[in-house]
Amino acid sequence: MDVSWIPGSADLVVVIVASLTVLGGVGATIASRSKRGAPPRPQGEPSPTVTADAPSAPASAPSAVRGAEAPEAPQSRLARLRSRLGGGFGASLLALLSKGKLSDDDWDELEETLLLADVGSSATDQILVSLKERLRANPDADPRAVLREVLIEAIDPDLDRSLALGAPGTGAHEPVVVVGVNGVGKTTTVGKVARVLVAEQYSVVMAAADTFRAAAADQLETWGARVGVPVVRSDREGADPASVAFEAAGRARDEGKDVLLVDTAGRLQNKAGLMDELGKIVRVVSKVKEPVEVLLVLDATTGQNGLTQARVFAEVANVTGIVLTKLDGTAKGGIVVAVQRELGVPVKLIGLGEGADDLAPFDVEQFVDGLLGSAS
Q: pLDDT value at position 267?
């Protein structure tokens, strides 16, 4: 078409051509993006997690979650971490026994060392009697070997320390309720337990039933996002914890998850109302499926006070296992013996550091070897 008669027609043609070129480039960019999907999420931005008001992704094997971390295999963790147990009461005991023939003062010091390590009076008496008998029967015995044998017996290697879960991939939606007082690292422990389960190929959903601490649900979502585990939560601070737990139990069932992990609020043992609420959470979850585990998180550094907490929790919920945190760098490792005797339930997991995979299944022999600084 001849446009030479239009004033400024040459300039107009240039503008039209330039505009078409720009639009064509935009269209090509949009088409290209639609083919390869959304642009990558900026580094450091958290992955989206499921809330109580949003549907979650279908259940799938943990390894299939795009961008999720691969946690360390649980079987190798304690072997890696046990050096952090060295220098505790085991080393003190070994140093005394290595002196050779022990005086009455030496035996008194052994007793004091055990008591200060929170082993407990009855267990201390048993350990000392066993040591005396074996050393008298065989004076030339290796003190390390004798002490190792006695400590393993005191901790009881015959207790079943595995989590009472079925095989991964069954969609059995088995609830595991985690309880404990404020300050023991309970929410962090729940996140670390999720990593242990994901490493064993379980599909997991977590319930943020600690609704009284604003940061608890956010903290749990951060842990979940790293390994592709969805979190059921309430957007309202102070919401009914039992309602959150009940909804999570239903979702775990409906989506065929293997395990439901329930984080609960830190309970002060002298707060009867809060303890009653914990009992309510367990009862409500049981309407969907009875919990297979109630894990009590204890701080190893609290010593005998931790036993007081353990007694109260055992009265409210059927505690089936202990998770001991902050065992690294402490001389209080004897609490393992004392709490098992107090509750009649085993220590199943121990925390030996701040790292994401520094929670390990408890193994008696590796634990004692760590205390004594034994070579693997």
A: 66
Angle at 57 between CA 52 and CA 58, to 5 degrees: 120
> What is the number of residues in the chain?
376
The Cα angle at residue 48 between residues 47 and 53, in degrees rounded to 5: 165
What band does 19 get if pLDDT is binned at 50, 70 and 90? very low
Measured CA to CA in angstroms, residue 243 lies from 176, 182, 218, 239, 283 at distances of 16, 21, 18, 8, 11
Residue 3 pLDDT: 39
- Report the half-sphere exposure of 255 (CA within 13 A, side-chain side): 25
Chain center to CA of 73: 14
Long-range contact set of residues 138-142: C-beta below 8 Å, sequence gap at least 24? 139/101
- Tell which residue, 71, 38, 148, has the closest CA to residue 355: 71
**Cβ(140)–Cβ(113) below 8 Å:** no
Query: Strand, coil or helix: what is 256?
Result: coil
pLDDT digits (tens, 9 = 90+) for 72-103: 999 999 999 988 887 778 888 999 999 888 99
Quote the pLDDT of residue 38.
30
Taking each continuous run of H as one helix and of E as one strand, the counts in the chain are 13, 8
